[in-house]
User: What shape does this take?
Amino acid sequence: MAGPGGRTWRDLLAGRARKRKSAFGSGAELQEAALRLLDHHQNLNDLLLEVEGSAKPAGQDSAEHQEVSSESFIVSVLQEQASRLGVPTAILAAKNAVTNIERICQASAGPSQVPLLNLDQRKRLSCLLQTVKDLLVNNVFCCPLFCQEMWKMKDPPVLEAVWHLHRDGIVGLGELLESNPAAPAAVEWLCSSLCGLCKQAEESSEDAALAGRVLSGKALNWVLVEQGLAAGLHSLQQGLYESKAWRYFVIVFLQSGFQQTSALGRKLEFKKVPYICHAVLQRMLTWVLDAVGKEKQEDVSTLQAMRFWLNVFSVSVYKSAVHPDSLQQFFRHTLTEVLTYNPLLKVSDAIHMQKEWSFTRTCSLLTTLYRKLFVAFSAKESISQLQQVLETREVNWQHVLSCVSTLVVCQAEAEQLFKDLLSHLLIKAFGNYDMENMITAFLIARQAALEGPAVFMPYSEWFKASFGNAGGHHGSSKKALVFLFEFLSELVPFEAAPYLKVHIMYPPFVPTKHRSILLEYITLAKTRLADLKVAIEDMGLYEDLSSTDESVQPQGQALRDVEKALQIFENSRKIPTSVIEASIFRRPYYTSWFLPALLRPRVLPKIPDARMAFIDSLKRADKIPLNLYSTYMQACRAMKEKMLQDESQAESSHSKEPIEQLKAELAELRMLTVDQAKYADVPAQIAVISDRLATVLGHSSDQNEAAALNSPIQVDISAPRLEPCHKGVVDLLLTSFCQNLIAASYFNPPDRQGPCLSLFVKMMCGHRNLLPALLGRLCQLIYHQGPSLNDAHILGLAAFVIHLSESRALIPEVEANFGISQPVPEKVLSLSEYWNCLLACRTKESLVFCMRFCTAAASYLMCKFSSYSHGDLCALLPPSLVKKLQYIMPRLSLEARGILCEEAKPDLIWSSLSCPSLNYKRASLCLWKQARFRELLKEKTFQLSFREWLLLELEVCPEKDILSASERQDFHYWAIYQWYLPAPSTSGGCDGDLEKACGIIINTILDSSQRLDLGSCGQSKMRVNPDILCKLQEIVLELGCRRKLLSGCLDAQRHFLFEILQERLKDREPGSALGEQLWRQQELLLHRRILVGLPASALIKTCRKGMKTMLDCEDFFCFVNSELKNVCSRGYALSYDITAHFFRGLLNASLDCEDSVEEVNNVLTACKTKCAILLFSAALWWPRLEPVLCSQWKRLFGTPLAEELERLREWQSSAASFLSSGVAFPLSGPPWISAAFFHCIIQQHSPRGREKNALKRLGTDTEQLLVSLLFFALMDVISAKIAPKEGVDFQTSQEWSLEILQCLEERGMSWPLLFYSAEKDPRKYHVLRSAASDHHIQLLPVAFYSLTPRFHHELLAREPTFLYVALDLYIQLLRLFVEGKDLPQSDQAGQSPDPTEHGDPLELISTARQFLLGAIPRCPAQSFGNIQPLLATCEELDPALRATLLHASRPAVAMELEEELVLF
Assistant: This one.
C-alpha cells in the first residue's frame, strides 16, 4: 500500500522513526497499535505486493528501525486475517498469491495471451515472488494448494511467470504440471505458449534474448541491466548461477519425458509430468514438420519462429544437465519420428520425385533439424538408426531420402557407410527375394548420387559395380536373375529417362543362355523412353550417363557431342570414330541432332579454326548432305552481314544472375571459414555452392559435360584454350579458395582451419564438366605465368594443388597436348605427372618459382595434415613436388648440399611462408631441415634418382640458368661424384660403379632427346648438353684408364658402351609401325651423336693376349653392321663425322699397342670382310678424310702411313687417274672396294658422258667390279628417291645404272646374283648387301624394276636364275605394298615423263607385273625348276600370276601360251 508521494509502507515507518521519538514504550506496543489500525483499513493483496523483501535498508543503525521486521509484520497480518476467517495461514497466503499472479498476468489484457511479461508486470511479479519466498521461509505458504489454485485461474498463467516460479525455487514446473487436473489442457497450454514464445522472440531482439533464456534456462542478467532493473540484481544472479536451477523448460521436458530406468524410482510422485513433457515435445516437432511440405506457403515470421524452436536440438544447450543416455534417447526418438512422420507417399512417388529432395532443394527447416540431430551421433550411428527405421517402420520417403542427402553432404564418412549399407540391402534382397530391400537400395543409391561424385559415386558406376559382372548378386542363379529383371521391369512405368538409359547402356551381366530376359527388359525400357519422347537413338555420342539431369534434351546433348568431337579432332586431326559410326549406325540422331548442332550459323573466322576444318573433313568424306552444307554457308554469310548484337547482350545479361548468386554464396562461405564455431555449417554451405555452380555451368552454351566419366581430360599445354565463361567461373572459384585460405590463416594455422578447403576442392572436382577448364587454367597460371605470380597467389595455388591431390580419385587422367609431334601421342598423365609437366625448370625465373611453389605446397601439407600418419602423408603428397624440391634445393643452396637435420615445428614453417619479411630461401631451408620431411625423403616414392636428376638438369637452358658456368660445374661435380656415384642403387645411386653411371647418363641423354621438346629454349634435339657430355667424357676416360691397368685377356667382356646402346634397341621390333621406325631412326642418330662426342679411342677396345696389346673392334663392327648403317642416307656409307671419328680413334688407340702400324693394318684388313661399310665410307669421304688422317699419323708417329691406309690412298688415286688420263685401272684387292672408289670419283668429278667411255676401257676380267658398280649405282637410285636432299640426282643415277647394266649385257656377264638375299644364297656379293642399310635392301625391288628398259630377251635364256630373281623381287614389292610400307614416290617438283620413274606405287607394281607376264613365256624350261618355293607366296598375293607360271612350266603348252601372251 503506497503512502503520500508514492512512498511505500516501509518508507513511511522508517521516516517517522527518524523524525520523532516513539510515543510507545516498546516495539510490542507499536505493533499492537498498527494491527488495530490495519484491522479497520487492510488490503491483503496490495500488502503482499508492497513488501519487497526481508533485506533491511543499508545505513540505518537506529535501534527502533532494526526492530521493525516486515516479515513478521506480514506474517502477523496473515495470521490475524486467517484466524478471523477460520482458515490456515498457509492456505490464505497461497490463495492471495494466486490472486495477485492472476491480476499481474491480466494487467495487459489483449486479444490473445502473450508468453512474456512487460516491464511493469515483471517488476510487480518480482515483488510478489520475494514476499512469497519470505512466507516460505516462515512456513506460512502452501505450495500444493498454490499449484491447484493456479489452474483455477480464468486464464492459464503466462509462461514467463511460470519460469520465474521455477527459477526462484517456489514451485517447480513438474510440480505445477502434476497438479493440473487435465493433462491434455496442460499440453495445449504449453504448446501454445511455446509457439507464441518463438514467434515473439523473432519480433524483438530483447524478447529473443529473454525467450532464449526461458527455453534454455540461461541467466537474465544482461536483459535486466538493459531495462534498468538494477534493484535486486545481485540476488537474482545468486539464484540463477549458484542454485544450478537456471536450465529450464527444455531441460525439464527432456529429463521428465525421457527418464532413464535408474531415475524412474525417484520420480514416482510425478505421474502426469512424463506424459505432458513427451507430448509437448511431440507436438512442437509436429508443428515444425507440418510446415516442411508447405514451406513456400508459410509466412516468413512463422518459419522464423520454427527455426527458433530448432535451437532446442542444439546439443550444447544441455551440457551436463541431462544424462547422456536421455539425450541420445531424445535425439534418436526425434530422428525416428521425423523419418516416420505422415508416411503417405508411395514408393512410386519417391521414384518420381526424389530429385526434388536433394540437399539444396530440401526445406531448410528439415535440413537444419537433421544437421542438429546428427551432432549427437556418429555417422555410423546415424545410418544404423536410419537402417533400423527402414526395416521396422513405415516411413516418409521424402524425409528418409532428404536424410540420406544430408548425411552424405555433411558427414565425410557417410559415403563408405552407405556403400556398406547398400551391399547389405542387396544381400538381403537377393537372399530372401525381397522387393522392399531392393527398392530401398535403389532409392538410397540414387539419392546419394544426386549430390554429385564429390560425395558419392554416380548411379551409373554403382549400377555397373553391383550388376555389371558375373560376380554380382544376381549371378548366383537364374532365379536371382529373374528376380532382378522383374524388379527393374516393375520400376519401368515410374522411371525417369536417365536411369533407363543407364540400364540400357550398362545392362546387368547376363549369361548367353538367358539373353532373352535382358532383351525383353530392354524392349520394355525403350518403350518407356518412347512414351517419354526420348529415343535411345537420340542419345549423345559422349553422353554422361552418371548425370540424372532430365532437362538435357537432344539439342543440348548434341551441342556437347559437337564440343567433344571438336576436341578429339583438334588433337588427332582425324574424324572421331564415334562420329563415323553414328553417321552409319545411328543415322537419325546424326542427321537430326548432331549435324544441326555442328552447323549452327555463325560468323566464320578469317583463318579457318578447328570447327571449320572438322566440317570440311566431314564434307570431303561425304558425311554432310550438300543441301544442308549449302544452307549452312548461306546462313553464315547472312549472319556476317548483320550481327545480332541485341541477342548476344541479352544472353550475357541472362547469365549474370546465377554468377551473382554464386558470388554471394562464396562470400557466405568465407564468413564460415574464419569462425571455428561455424565449421559444422561448412558442408551445407558447400552443397549450396555446388548447386549454384551447377546452375551457372548448366546455363553455359558451350559447356563440355559430355566427356565420359573416366575419359582423360585433354589439356593443350602449349596454349590452353578456355572458353570465356568457364574461365570466369574458374577464376572466381580459385580466387575464393585463395581468399578463404588467407583469411583462415590469419586466425589459425592450417591444421586448425577445419574441413572447408578440402570440401570446397572436392566439390569442384565433382563437377566433371569444370575439370578441363580448371586444369587448363592451372596450366596457364603455373606453366605460363608462374614466375610473375606474387607470394599470395603462389601460396594459394600450392595449397589448391595439395587439396586436388587429396581428391585425386575424382580426377581422370590428363591427356596433354604439347603442340608438337609426339613420340607417344596417346600417353596420358596422372595428376602428379601433370604437375611435373607444369613445373618446368629451364630458366632462372622458372627455377625460383618452382622452388617457391613446391616449398609452399609441401609446407602447407606438413602443417595441414600434421596429425596424419607417415603412410597417409606419403599417399597424399605428390611425388613430383618433392622431387622438384630435391633437385632445386641443392642447386640453389650450398647449405642444402650438406647432410643437415634440425627439428622444426610445423607452425614455424607456416609462419616463414606467410610472413612477407622472410626470404623464400629461408622458408625452403626450414622445410628442408625438418626431421619429418627428411623422413619422407627416405621413401622410395620420393627419392630423386640419378636418372631423374639428369632429366631435370638436361632441361635447363645454360644461357638462361641462374647459375654461372663455374657454379654449374661445381654443382655437377657435387651431384655426380659426391652424391649419386657413391649412393646405393636402392636410393637411385650408382653403387660406386662408373659403368653404371655411364649407362645412366647415356640412357638419360637419349631419353631426354626423345621426350617432348616443348619449351626447350630453341635447343635442337640432336644437341647434347655440353656440361653433361663433359662429365660423360670424364667418366669414359676414367673407365678407359682403369681398363688399361687390368691384366689378362678381356675378350669375353663386351664393350660396355655398345652394350648400353644396343640394350635400348633390343626390345623394339624394327618396322612394326611407322612411329617405331621414326623413333628408331632418331634414336640411332642420337647414338651417333653421342659416340662422336666421346673420345675417339672409346670406340675401340684394347686387350692383352699374352704379352701383346691388341685392338678389338668387334663390338663397334657389330654395332655398325646391325644399327648405324641404317641411318646412312646414301645406303652404303656412314656419315662423315662417325667415319672420321673411327679412323681417328683407331690411330689414337694404336698408341697403346707395342706395334701400332701392325694393329692399324690388322683392323683395316678385318674391315674388308667384317665391316666393309667403313671402307666404303672412307671411299666416299676420302677427299675430306685424307688430310685429317695424314696429319694425325704424322703427329703421332712421324713415319710413313700404315700399309692399309696407304692402300686406301692408292685406290683413290688410281680411280682418279683412270678417269682423267686413261691409264689402266689396277684390280688389286677386293673388287668391291675398287668399285666403291671408282663410283665415288665418278659421282664427284666426272662430267656426264665420260662414264660410258670409262666402262669400255675396263679390262675383260672385271665382272665383280662391274656388278659392284651396279650395286652402288642402284643404291644411289634408291637414295635419290628416299633422301632427295642428299644431292643425288635420280635421273643421273638411273642413267649410270643403265650404262653399267648395258656394259654387263654386252660382255655377257652374270649379274642377277647381286639380288639374291644373303639368307637364301650367301654368295660372293654378300659383302655388298651386308654393307647396305636395311631400308635400301628392302627397296631393291624398286631399283631392279627401274632397269626393265635394258632387259633383253637374250638375258632370259642366258641366265636361268633370272626368272627366280625377278619373281622373288616382284613378291617382295607386293609385300611392301600390302604391309603398308611407304614405297618411294617421284619428286613432285621435277617429275620425268620416263615411264620407268614410277611416281605411283601401283603403277610400279603394274609395270613389274606386265614385265613378268611378258617374260614368262620366253623363259627356258630350266628357269622354272627353282621357282617352286615362291609359288605358295605367289598364290597368296597374285593367284593369276601363279596360274600363268604353272601353265608356262608345262612343256606341251609352252608354245601355245607364248602365242597367247604376245598381247601383253
About this structure: The longest strand covers residues 1101-1105. DSSP finds 72 helices and four strands in the chain. The mean pLDDT is 79. The two ends are 145 Å apart (CA to CA).
